[in-house]
Design a protein that fits this description.
- Helices cover about 60% and strands about 5% of the residues.
- With about 500 residues, the protein is α/β, with parallel strands linked by helices.
- The strands form two sheets. The protein has a five-stranded parallel beta sheet. A two-stranded antiparallel sheet has the order 2-3.
- A hairpin with a 4-residue loop joins β2 and β3.
- The protein starts with a helix and ends with a helix.
Length: about 500
């Protein structure tokens, strides 16, 4: 068939999956994740392509592929329960999920499908759903992203229970806090009550792989830690997620945080230019370390500076980490907390302090923000702004930097009020000392990176080659500083 090049590539992917399973067994590759799932049709399209490749037999309803919808943006997370409910109501999908339950009477057409939704499902029936931290964070900010994912899990579990289907949540966490990273043990305990039930799936990405699994002893320790958390969460559970007034407060905080975040990222006209100027995103996009390009295809003109929607979440977070802003992991949190405290200062502060002590979800969110704030270095960040901005842009960009700085100091002040500490990470002296030491060691790399990027950009604009170093040498030097800063910051991936 005269399909397009993209369509042929997709078809060949399914055919290759079929060949892999034939040669090495079904266990070699079973999961097909649908990025940016929006509607039921996204899942059914995969089922159709699986049928064409011989991975799904509609006659017996047997399939060797587990279709996993991935809900990434905030809007997709809100839509996820309705999408899955519609899927579970389809006899075709229910039969494929169950791997059977297809009954046809003798006088019916052989292709007819009886609605079997009233039949009990096998205990092995399992629906896996993946939730994306990265894009929801880039879309609406840290606090809003975490709360929407938290709500989506509860809603998805409710839908699955109504249909008697086992649900396994697949957490697409990166290494950085802005992409869902952080201590796995506390993160698992912070999941909504009754959503784990002995099952969880988590990605570990970036330098986390080396720091957690490079040695057998380390790998065993981290696997035991996560297993313990899954068992503990499944058996005990806090139950605080069911306290409706608490949920309403979090909804209010989330909405205000999202509004403040979007006002800067998407409504401030100078922000896109600011981002491309004061971060090394142009160098990061040339690093040969990612599994995907830095921009999504088909969203705006390729390479356009003004197009933020096409920029993937990984270089977005990575760039802010390199310039020591770490913006996606905390911006908007301070303003959200302040707005809530202004209503009834003393009462609401006591309430947030109580949340911090009793509610695992809230405690993990505040702790992640605290750790991120400890890694921010506004002096270095200001150096990026002053040195990498064009002279005609400097005044505008300094105003943006001032706005970001105010939010930083506000967030820091309120976080310390909530956790009752005098300094960031006072509750974890070992981590505090570790962060202080690593922050100090990478300061020279920051200055080197700024100097190299500045020369590299001048080199790219100049038609006269009078530089001491070639473009390739400058690019290699800048990339080395990126590796060094990433190693010092640790959770950057």
């Amino acid at each position: 068939m005269p399909f397009s090049e993209t369509a042929c590539e997709t078809i060949e992917t399914f055919r290759m999956l079929r060949l892999l399973q034939q040669e090495f067994g079904q266990g070699i590759c079973q999961t097909y994740i649908i990025s940016m799932t929006n509607f039921v049709s996204d899942v059914l399209e995969v089922l159709l392509l699986s049928q064409e490749a011989g991975l799904y037999d509609p006659a017996s309803c047997q399939t060797t592929v587990r279709i996993v919808p991935l809900f990434e943006t905030v809007e997709d997370l809100k839509r996820a329960p309705a999408v899955m409910k519609e899927l579970f109501e389809l006899p075709l999908y229910r039969a494929a999920l169950a791997g059977g339950y297809r009954y046809v009477s003798a006088n019916q057409d052989k292709n007819a499908l009886v609605d079997d939704s009233s039949l009990p499902l096998k205990p092995s029936d399992l629906q896996e759903v993946m939730l994306g931290y990265s894009d929801s964070n880039k879309d609406s900010g840290f606090l809003s992203s975490n709360w929407e994912i938290h709500k989506a899990q509860r809603a998805l579990q409710k839908v699955a229970s109504e249909f008697g289907i086992s649900l396994r949540i697949f957490h697409g966490r990166g290494g950085s806090v802005g992409r869902g990273g952080g201590p796995a043990y506390s993160a698992i305990l912070a999941q909504p009550t009754d959503t784990i039930k002995g099952r969880i799936k988590i990605t570990e990405q970036g330098e986390v792989l080396a720091s957690k699994y490079s040695l057998p002893e380390l790998a065993l320790y981290h696997l035991e830690t996560m297993t313990t958390a899954v068992i503990q969460s499944s058996l005990l559970g806090s139950g605080f997620d069911r306290v409706e007034p608490w949920n309403q407060i979090m909804e209010e905080l989330s909405a205000r945080s999202r509004m403040v975040y979007k006002a800067l990222i998407y409504e401030q006209p100078d922000f896109v230019d600011f981002f491309h100027s004061v971060t090394p995103v142009d160098v990061i996009s040339q690093l040969q370390i990612g599994s995907r390009p830095s921009k999504r295809p088909g969203k705006g003109a390729a390479g356009k500076k003004k197009d933020m929607s096409s920029l993937r979440a990984i270089p977005w977070v990575f760039s802010w980490t390199q310039s020591r802003f770490l913006l996606p992991a905390w911006y908007g949190v301070g303003s959200a907390l302040q707005g809530f405290l202004e209503q009834e200062p003393e009462k609401n502060l006591n309430l947030l302090q109580y949340f911090y002590v009793k509610w695992p979800f809230f405690r993990v969110v505040i702790s992640k923000v605290e750790m991120t704030l400890a890694k921010v270095d506004l002096q270095i960040a200001e150096h990026y702004v002053n040195e990498l901005s064009q002279p005609e842009d400097l005044e505008r960009f300094q105003k943006l930097f001032s706005q970001i700085s105010q939010e930083y100091y506000l967030t820091k002040e309120l976080i310390l009020k909530i956790n009752g500490q005098n300094k960031l990470l006072d509750g974890d002296p070992e981590l505090q000392r570790s962060v202080q030491l690593r922050n100090g060691t990478i300061v020279p790399l920051g200055f080197l990176q700024v100097a190299l990027i500045k020369r590299l950009r001048q080199h790219n604009k100049s038609q006269v080659l009078h530089f001491r170093f070639s473009k390739e040498e400058l690019l290699r030097g800048a990339m080395l500083t990126i590796n060094g800063i990433a190693a010092g910051m640790r959770n950057t991936g």
